[in-house]
Write a structure and sequence with these properties.
The chain is mainly α. The protein has 18 helices and 6 strands.
Amino acid sequence: MAGGVPINTAPIQGGYLTGKKLIFPLSLVISLFFLWGFSYGLLDVLNKHFQQVLGVTRLESTGLQVMYFGGGYLMFAPIAAEVLKRKGYKITILMGLGLYSLGAVMFWPTAHFSTPQNTKAAFGGFLVCTLVIACGLATLETAANSYAVVIGDPALASARLQFCQSWNGVASFIGPLIASKAFFSGENQNSLTNVQYVYLAVACAGAAVAVLFFFAKLPEVAEQPTAARRGSVVQESTVELGIDSEGKIIGDEPLYKQYNMIFGFCAQFCYVGAQVTIASFFINYATENAGYTSAQASQMLSYGLITFTVGRFVATALATVFESNFLLTVYCCCAIALNAYIAAGHGKPAVAVLIVIFFFEAPMYPTIFTLGTANLGRHTRRGAGILVMGVSGGAVFPPIQGAIADAANTRISYVVPLVGFCFVLAYVSYHWATRGFKVMRIKSAPVIATSLEGGAVGGVINTVHYDEKRLSIVARDEVRRGSIGSVNLNGATGGPGKW
């Protein structure tokens, strides 16, 4: 790093942080969620603004989503995951913030040199800017989502990620509120001037957060489970190993055999595709189906994002009481019913339902991420990158919906997100069923095997209570294999045990 300033990281002792120790690192992570929530909120408004100013069709305008979700998240998330695997959370976050700020700065010359004669070239320039920003955001999401899950108690992983993601929602509705004034009011309706200033402010915010992260002492979470051993005498009363109830190391299977993660990726792909299409064509739906102006529709979109944010905080509270897979099953059923009405309804009531559906979308991304990364062990960081790649669904669904909207109308095109929600329902309901249809969250149990709903991932080590004889056999085999270094255990009678 420039100037020889060391990157301050500190390994977490004892597996994960609790209580007041969580406040500072989570606050830093929340700042990242806020940054990309603001950027995403602006993206949906730019979609409509470029249609007006640059004369692109609805299908062409979805190029922003293709670059944002396909170019950035699909192509760059694996790179970000590899950097995370090799260099850790802090370096990865700094890299993401650098790319994010660079892409935002690039909006300035692109907008400045845009003229009525080079609208297609200008739109191409904006696509490149969006791609660079998306690479930064894919990097941030890979690191921040995983970090929020593994830094604290695995039992509360879903609720913790819900809370962090809630601030993403706060920023995402601020974006359209600002844009409704900056892009659609007065002389700015047919101008790109304010786009320059808005994104310059975004770049400055990204640089400021990067400086904060550079000098902060960010706790680093180890990915491999470890424990201390002195000779042949084991000292502690619990075993901090990623071992399930059958004596297998959690996440020991190859990455391609982590089927829960693979189907979690598919569910994430379909959910993000559905979420993006609902937001991207919101303004078109409101103007065509209910007679709102673009400025009014932009404000309506901000109301939808406020609803989304409220839904995140509500889901955070509910996730501390109920099993997340059960909650998401209920939320998916509601989203499917509302989406069906949106595709068939007319007028202002249909727009009202379109706003309400944001509430039921709210917990889906963080919950699917937590479920999909559950019990990955040594694959935790690469698994996080794969789940973030699922965001690329936002590049596939909008062009399909745009083509349907151009061929028929925007209202009919809302059958596209309906398909996505149906797949998500299939994944979470199967996940819920295979884990015993649990409704209330299990706060404690005498034996913790694999996590029921997520959060038991690699660096956050499951604490598994076994009898001494059984553990000795398992541990000795794993030490010989080199999977783990050592084991800590008190004997059943309270004294030190030997093996």
